[in-house]
Amino acid sequence: MSRAVLTIFKRLYDEGLIYRAERIINWCPRCMTAISDIEVDHSDDEGELVSIRYGDGENSIVVATTRAETMLGDTAVAVHPDDARYKHLVGKTITLPLVGREIPIVADEHVDPEFGTGGVKVTPAHDPNDFEIGRRHNLANITILSTSAVVENSGTRFDGLDRFAARQAIVEELRSQGRIVAEKRPYIHAVGHCQRCETVVEPRLSKQWFVKVAPLAKAAGDAVRDGRVKIEPESLSPRYFEWIDNMHDWCISRQLWWGHRIPVWYGPEGEIFVTGPGENAPVGFIQDNDVLDTWFSSALWPFSTLGWPDETLDLKKFYPTSVLVTGYDILFFWVARMMLFGLFAMDGVAPFKTIALHGMVRDKFGKKMSKSRGNGIDPIEFMDRYGTDAVRFTLARGANPGADLALAEEWVAGARNFATKLWNATRFAIMNGANIEGAMPAAESLGAVDRWILIRLNETVSEVDSLLERFEFARASEIIYHFAWDDLCDWYLELSKEALSKGGAVESQRVLGQVLDQLLKLLHPIMPYLTEEIWTALTAGESLVISKWPLASREYEDSTSKKIVGELQEIITEVRRFRNDQGVKTSQRLPGKLTLSKEISSFESSLRYVLRIDLPSDHFVVGGSVEIGQAKIEFDLSGSVDLVAERARLTKDLASARKDHETALVKMNNQNFMNKAPAKVVEEITQRLTATGADIERLTAQLSQLPSA
RNA sequence: GGGUGCUUAGCUCAGUGGUAGAGCGCCUCGUUUACACCGAGGAUGUCGGGGGUUCGAAACCCUCAGCGCCCA
Length: 709
Description:
4-stranded antiparallel β-sheet, 21 helices, single chain, Isoleucyl-tRNA Synthetase, Domain 1
């Protein structure tokens, strides 16, 4: 690492991309170090805006400031060149109050004549904008604050006072001199704070090392602009451009203990010697005390970890990497810097092809976790309570690209429940002989239910594949979750129970084994521990880690299985609803007559099993019935039909059918719709119209046949 | 001030032109040979307001309001 740092530093220096300069930098008087622009947090703070009269009478001008103490370092007053109010003053001097120094009045385009009085005090050593004005007008830079933000060298009695105490004292003194013409308090304005310690940052003139970013940033911007590097989700790329295209020169020296020491040595005559790896500075030279910004070395990560600056095999093979996954908050700190240095050091080859950005984990209300709010969540606690896989699944399920995730304990508990569900389902499957031995049965030898779950599996695999391709982890997790819980556990297992319990359902056992095998593989990256455990129990295989990722296969697709299972599901749901409305307990067996279409007639025993319907006896009396499409299920309720409930159920269905019928009808009667809508949609609506029409007819008949209560 | 998002069920969020979705929560019922960390059934939304485009808008455009993030 150290070699890499030395190498890149020297290379940049030799190419003139590292220089030392006096600049206004952000200085933290507590950390006693320079900090970069992005380490400064801005917040709207209360301060006061005081307007001070400089000079007297006709030759006076009023300036406003929130940092009165900086006036001790003023070396000019600036006005806009076109400002008629001050034309007569430009080029003259004015006496700086308290200090007594004569300072010039200069005209500068960058002064906003609309703001305040149109005159601004210029303190080049303590304000970045003033520094620029100072450069343009060759003003002196007078530093009047120490590194710990105490007034010094001002030649006034304020020397020795802390900046905030001095601010107050100076305003008081000016007030007593009658020089304060206005005070606005509180005055809300943006104040920079040190990201580490929240101390108010003090702009300070200082000699620092800089990276000249213009050429590097241009390359880094272009790499994304021309598509060599993709940012996912794309919606975050404007942020990248906005930043990289307007990047200021990067101050890389830090006055800290920790870090790579700047490899620059100074000779007795002020000579500068930069040492590369293995090089020594001439005798008598002294090394710079500062260290490098931590991101300077982090920026080397994509290639220094592969052995760079050596031309290693790893470097050849793994640079550039394919995907960098990280939080969007670190796009500028780290990602952009890796782009800068990667392109520079690796002959214009960007360090990765795709930058996949995820969001931040927030509390259950979507609020940022913070110490002051006390809403931090310790993932280890959740892992102890709900299991690591549950936490992993929760995070994956919430990981929408570039969007934040609200993490609530309830979500983790839900994920734990899912894990338990899988555990139980696999246990049940194993108990019933599920296996992955031998080849899969041919499609022709399988029933509709078996085929259906294989079709659903195939759909799930391909959907998950394409979602993962797009870093849509949340949706991929969701798809897997519902396939496992709804399709597999709630439907397939329930519909297969009868056959499995009777034994001899060899095909289904193999199918079930197959479905679980593939499902566990899909889930393995998200829930590695659980899936490994139950997969090895199911298959006696060595490990999921080294097994093959599922391949989507359309082998079992056909035109009928989905329709058949759909019908079965509808029948089962409607009958359950009927029983529920009638207050019939789930476990209570009822005699019933099933009239089924030819297509699903073979599922009669299966339906009887799931719905607990006994064969009708000789004295069967129809007490209530459910009709779904062609299917009719009649029950003997032994004369105890709950007519009120039944009427309510049918009335509700009728209302819903009428509503759907009505909307379809409106569309069909709309000539514009008929002319312009695609045929597919028209057909769909037509079908809906017929279906709802039939429903209305049937329900009306059923209602009229119902004896009055 | 510049940039960029968001506003959908009680909460947190999916849904980029064709009958509004998920998880949790809520209500009712339930010892069904996997699972109560469960099962079955149910309720809940003028998709922020207003305009427009379209046969059709939660989705596209304009506008207003509120909230957020990044940068200055």
